[in-house]
């Protein structure tokens, strides 16, 4: 059943993310994938696997203890999984954060083709 395979892929995704294995994480995406992420600006952004690796290498250079904890997964149709998770870590100034995030993953032919991520991006 496709949903079960998708759930297994996304569980693996978060294990790989928390291990900071960016090469392996990037290989879970299609060669070029569509992203919506406040960190990338407004609207749809296409990123290659290499750009994804660079983005996460820079992020973990700034936040070495970055970790995501999945709260819930919501399979939706044959191609989508919505994941609610909390990202935590320590910023360069030594303060810690907990950021609730929701991502809608689109999975086609065993690869993530769309990664639409939503979180509160307002600075305090």
TrEMBL record:
Among InterPro entries, the record links this protein to: NTF2-like_dom_sf, SnoaL-like
Q: Which Pfam families match?
A: SnoaL_2
Q: Which residues form the SnoaL-like domain?
A: 11-113
Q: What is this protein called?
A: Nuclear transport factor 2 family protein
Per the UniProt record, the source organism is Pontibacter qinzhouensis
